[in-house]
Amino acid sequence: MGYTVGRAVRQQASYRQNKPIKCRKIKKFFRSEANRVDEAELYRHCVGKAGYHSYDPCAISTLMEPIAYVARLNEFYRSQGFPPYKWTVNHSAPLTPMKKPLTECRIALLTSGGVSRKDTAPFNPQARNDLRVDAIANDTAADFFAIHDDYYSHVDADRDINCIFPLERLRELAAERVIGSVAPHHYSGFMGRTYIRSAVVSEAAPALARKLRDESVDAFVLVPA
Amino acid sequence: MGLVARVVEEFGIPTVVVSTGRDLSAQVRPPRAVFVNFPMGNPFGKPSDSHQQRTILLDALHALDSIHEGGAMLDLPYEWPAPFAMNLGSGYSKSA
After folding, report:
1. Contacts of A67 in chain B (CB under 8 A)
2. Is residue A19 in some structural domain?
3. How many domains does chain A divide into?
4. A187 and A110 within one domain
5. What is the C-alpha to C-alpha distance for residues A223 and B29, in angstroms, rounded to an integer?
6. Which of B34, B64, B66 would you mutate first to test chain A, the one with the most A CBs within 10 A?
7. Contact A221/B87, CB-based, under 8 Å?
8. Is the pLDDT higher at A107 or at B82?
9. What is the pTM of this model?
10. Residues A22 and A130 in one domain
């Protein structure tokens, strides 16, 4: 793959200004105007018209734009006669720099996909404001999970939990010394449909942060579902 | 989930969100995010495709180091093999 993280970082300028990303424009151009792409023409287009200097055929062939979930959900709520959903919109974000290289970091995961161990109660898919957060021992077998969530399709994750909660992949990276270690516990919770966001921000999330600190977690990977 | 990331980050632990909802994450603005244009139930790809799962996990981990500005999101280049629709499961159709 010709993709580099450096290139993605350059895309952030467009992201911050809420402008479409250049490579998506390019993809759209070729989707609409050519079924088969002449590589020389592609190169000229990338460099010439878009001022985009990193020729990357892999970036061109994407078939679809990201789904507009916000608009679709707004329309859904409207069609149900619900009041408009009050999305949280932030214009800036905090950042804590990494304190050590990845090879020395202890990593933990969080899923919000309604994932529970088979020896604990299932999550309630219909719950509202459910602040339950389970600690999941890292040595839990990949087939020892149940998923209870009605708001996304977990057919694939039912077969292989790593589709949403890549425990086994993380353990492999630790075994190969790509990361320092895997935390003793991962977490599952924050299933959504939480209308009391202050309870998340002032109680549940800080409680989780303290647990991470107590287990010396250096970086945290969160996977919404 | 983005809210949780922001709280944990402010607490002093670096975070990265692996997102399949680009516009959803862009609104909440977690400290770091990688966007994967896959269905919502497949942020790391397909069952038994451990290579793809590993690659996306690694991309997320590397974003911990490569993102130096709070609120940045990287678009990962992977393609789902076919166009997919919003499939939020039965919860929505039940209440619909």
Report:
1. 21, 84-86
2. yes
3. 2
4. yes
5. 14
6. B64
7. no
8. A107
9. 0.80
10. no
Q: Is the CB of residue B1 less than 8 Å away from at least one CB of chain A? A: yes
How far is Cα B83 from Cα A105, in angstroms, rounded to an integer?
A: 37
Name the minimum distance, in Å, from the CA of A32 to any CA of chain B.
16
Distant-in-sequence, close-in-space partners of A36: CB < 8 Å, separation ≥ 6: none
Minimal Cβ distance to A150: which of B66, B82, B90: B90
Give pLDDT tens digits for A192-221: 677 778 888 889 999 999 999 999 999 999
pLDDT digits (tens, 9 = 90+) for A169-183: 999 999 999 999 999
Q: Give domain status of residue A215, yes or no.
A: yes
Tens-place pLDDT, residues A64-100: 889 999 998 898 888 888 888 889 999 999 999 999 9
The two three-digit tokens of residue B67, written as one number: 């993102």
ipTM of the complex: 0.95
* Domain extent at residue A178: 102-223
Residues with Cβ within 8 Å of residue B20, at least 6 apart in sequence = A224, B35, B36, B37, B38, B39, B40, B42, B43
Q: Do A90 and B71 touch (CB under 8 A)?
A: yes
